[in-house]
Amino acid sequence: MSTLKVQVEKIQSQIKLSSNAQENETIIKANSNILNRLNKSLDELTSNKTKFNVMPIISELDAQLIPRLENDESDGFLINESSELILGDDVKALLENAIESTSLFIEKWRELEHKAQQDDSLNNSIVALRHFTKAINDINDKYWDQWLIHLENDFVVEEVVLEQQSSLGKKETYQKYNRLKANFDTDKTSKNVNSGLVSSLNSLKEQLVTLRGEMDTSDLPEGVAKFLKELDSPYTTPTLKLLTPKVFEWLTKQDLLSKLKISR
Predict the structure, then answer these.
(1) Helix or strand or coil: residue 192?
(2) Looking at the structure, do residues 122 and 175 belong to the same domain, yes or no?
(3) Residues 8-17, mean pLDDT to the nearest whole number
(4) Which of 39, 40, 35, 41 is nearest to 16 (CA)?
(5) Domain interval for residue 197
């Protein structure tokens, strides 16, 4: 990505110098048009850079999120043995095409200068940049959204359990959980994705997990507390043996059946 950015910035710099040196209005207008079109493509690419840069960070926090290089060598993003983010074959091909197309346009501009705005190489380079940028954006969003879902799954509390806390002497826990959950919901909608946001979201998640562990489940029907404890634990998976008639009845009453999955 850095090579592509350098190439685009290089041609931008050359165009600016040429435009400043020309007094012919037609030449200035043509070069400005080229510059504006390239600027738009570069801005779109740059806007994806910060989210792209946090992918290795969230992968460290969630080891199952992004495929490892040894398990997949083709699509999207991959994590290598040094925990570095690399491009899969499909995205790498788009990057190489964008670099090649941009290089061809640079050569044409050096040859034709402002007349290069009529050359197919300009449109080809912009289309190639757009395809690469869209691929990066889609994969960024895919893994970012998945990570947020995983975070929320770690601290989710059934509404009935949360509401019971006030009457069970856990009012402070109830209030703090709701406050931190509201902070989390606000942070997760932020468009300013960076390492600071990742740290904030992960910290909120850990505090919410702790608060969930402090909640009183003594008012739950027999077997339900054990089932939920197993469900919430990152180290165990509840078996169907725990799904007794009373637990099943409670889950049905709380409309939770459609929210739970059976896995092997």
Answers:
(1) coil
(2) no
(3) 71
(4) 35
(5) 156-219
Q: What is the pLDDT of residue 22?
A: 47
> For residue range 125-135, what is the model confidence (pLDDT) as tens digits?
999 999 999 99
Show the DSSP H helices in the chain as ranges: 2-21, 25-47, 49-61, 89-112, 120-155, 159-164, 171-187, 195-213, 224-232, 245-253
User: Could you tell me which of 251, 200, 179, 201 has the C-alpha nearest to residue 221?
Assistant: 251
Model confidence band, residue 96 (pLDDT cutoffs 50, 70, 90): very high
Place of tokens 């806390």: 165
Burial per residue of 152-189, b for 16 or more beta-carbon CB atoms within 10 angstroms, e otherwise:
bebbbbbeebbebbeeeebeebbebbeebbebbeebbe
Of 143, 174, 206, the domain-final residue = 143
Segment 77-95, tens digit of pLDDT: 888 877 788 888 889 999 9
Q: Is the pTM of this model over 0.90?
A: no
